Amino acid sequence: MRVLLVDDEKELVATLAERLEMRGIDATWVTDYRAALAAVEKEAFDIALLDVRMPEMNGLELKRLIEVRRPTMKFIFLTGHGSEEDFKACSAESGRDYYLIKPLQIEVLMAKLNEIAHA
Amino acid sequence: MNSQYDAANTLGLQFFGSMTASISHEIKNALAIVNENAGLLGDLALLVDKGRPLDPQRLQIMAEKIRQQVQRADTIIRRLNRFAHSAHEPMVTTDIREIFDFTVALAARLATMKGVTMTVAPGEPVQVEVRPFQLENLLWLCLKHLFVVTSGSQTVEFAAEAAGADVLVSLRFGAGLPVSEIGAWVLSEGQPLLTVLRAELRPEASLLRLRLPRKTEPSLARER
What is the mean pLDDT of residues B66-73? Predict the structure, then answer.
């Protein structure tokens, strides 16, 4: 499974990517929307894990741009709080409850990735 | 006048809500990084159980990352604590640049999200007698409306100078921003704050100019 991680917190995505790699996931991380778009232009990912609140472009807007380039890609949104507003927006965008709250539990993330990959 | 104080208090609550929501996001990010590093330590410990050697330097790097994030969270929480106390802080005489610095620190995350760089112009201290929370709130309204209209990399510089019995504050924006539009919004939404601060706001070319008294009459100070 190939996963793209996008979050402006470099230490977070770099460490998370390493932990996913240890679990057999091919993980690539970037910290802004430009690098994310460049990555999906270059490589085919199965799933993108997108932070909802990032500088310049939020995760929901980024998801729409990625979808134009990679229509079959699937998405999980990451957010700091899980406010009702975020939950509704993320659910509407992902079509499901593919929405996780920081700090993450790796087991929950792995379960979500497997669920989406086999959906 | 009392209704203006009530309205200013309502704006204060909204300001408090916006800032604490933003600050809590910052803390969450620091916690998330601590969480991932702790998780990675656990992962590595499991690998040691399976016979894979552990690099002590690697452990030092991870410990340092955790320490940095704890320090980051501590700085954020100190700022939150100062902000919480400022909401009921009485009138004080202070260098207005301290209020600029604190407002910039409070709004830093939201500014980064919008691609806005905030600076405070260097200069001599300018003393002003004010309730800091009210002035921070007014400056925040200016920033809030700037964040609404900006769509790319932008700048705003806070500056102040004494002018007789008044202090002249300027918020100088980068090129291409609709300063008169921002000014009109602040004049409309922030009128109660302008009233309680006895301040005047005027848009001028590329800046918003705020004039407020350096000292407050004792009777008004009691009322505020």
Answer: 97
Q: Judge contact between B34 and B69, C-beta under 8 A.
A: yes
What range does the domain containing A8 cover? 2-117
Q: What is the C-alpha R_g of chain B?
A: 22
CA distance B112 to chain A (A): 6
- Cβ separation of B36 and A19 shorter than 8 Å? yes
User: What is the dihedral sign for C-alpha B53, B55, B59, B61?
Assistant: negative
The pTM for the full model equals: 0.87
Cβ-contact B86, B122 below 8 angstroms: no
What whole-number distance in Å separates Cα of residue A57 and Cα of residue A73?
Answer: 19
**Chain B residues whose beta carbon lies within 8 Å of the beta carbon of residue A56:** 113, 115
With an 8 Å Cβ cutoff, are A80 and B25 in contact?
A: yes
| pLDDT reported for residue B99 | 96
* A104 CB within 8 Å of a chain B CB: yes
ipTM over 0.95: no
Read off the CATH number of the domain in which A108 is found. Answer: 3.40.50.2300
Q: Sign (positive/negative) of CA torsion A48, A52, A58, A61?
A: positive
Q: How far is B113 from chain A (nearest CA, A)?
A: 4
d(CA B223, CA B213): 16
- Alpha helices, DSSP H, located in chain B: 2-49, 56-86, 96-113, 132-149, 179-189, 191-197, 218-223
Burial B205-218 (b: 16+ CB within 10 A, else e): eebbbbebbbebee
Residue pLDDT tens, chain A, 119 long:
999 999 999 999 999 999 999 999 999 999 999 999 999 999 999 999 999 989 888 899 999 999 999 999 999 999 887 666 666 676 776 666 688 889 999 999 999 999 988 87
- In chain A, how many domains are there? 1
